[in-house]
């Protein structure tokens, strides 16, 4: 309904413009205008949706939950045309449904996620975020919902065969991730930071780094998409993912934990995982 109204409004505007422009090449212009109208209406709808989003930003209690993520992390969060999809997006949607709230997802740099939650710009972050002691000082974590690991990607035939071989090597990581943090422990390691995990993997393909330290599931996706790379059998670290909320927001934390428990108990969580992580 709303969309139609906007479409009509845009069509009227277009007509006004056409009239103002005079009548030359009328048929063609009209046709083009028709096409434009559809597009413009689409754009308008997006804008309207965005406006609503911005207006609802800080309202955890007002019916809308704002989630921030870094959608460069398949299969947990990635872009599918204009949508952000993935395991975290689906879990967050299921949690919001259980809480009777609407979910809005915003995309940003990984290292901006915790600050966004701290400042109240967002209600929570779900981003394949590993629970660690440092982060716990800045945000509160829900119960964990996934086992994870940092793994090492190398080129086929690389002399790097295990974590211990990383000493003195050039390591690619996504900025601010646990891969970035833990790679700092590598003796004489030369850490190269990238905005996206995929960029680190491309640097590896191009021989600009010797290895990439990144989470296991995205690693599998990236290796599949780039010939000549492999994941080492021995993981670099074992870790767990959880959702993070603003420190002290126990109300939201408890509601989310209750929802996560229900999703685990009902098997719904596993179903979401299975939807995105197929044949191993
Ligand atoms: N698990 C790692 C961490 O918490 C990497 C997460 C990256 N997530 C993302 N959506 N890019 O640091």
Descriptive report:
This protein is an alpha/beta fold and 280 residues long. The protein has helices spanning 2-21, 26-55, 87-99, 113-119, 133-136, 178-183, 197-205, 216-225, 250-266, 268-276, and strands spanning 64-69, 72-73, 77-80, 83-85, 102-107, 124-125, 139-141, 146-155, 170-174, 190-194, 211-215, 229-231, 237-241, 244-246. The strands form three sheets. Strands 8, 9, 10, 11, 12 and 13 form a six-stranded mixed β-sheet that branches. Strands 5-1-6-14-7 form a five-stranded mixed β-sheet, sandwiched between helices. A three-stranded antiparallel β-sheet has the order 2-3-4. The longest helix is centred in the N-terminal third of the chain and has 30 residues, at 26-55. The two termini are 44 Å apart. Arginine binds at residues 69-70, 72-73, 77, 110, 127-130, 174, 177-178, 215.
What are the salient characteristics of this protein?
280 residues; alpha/beta; six-stranded mixed β-sheet; five-stranded mixed β-sheet; globular; disordered N terminus; binds arginine
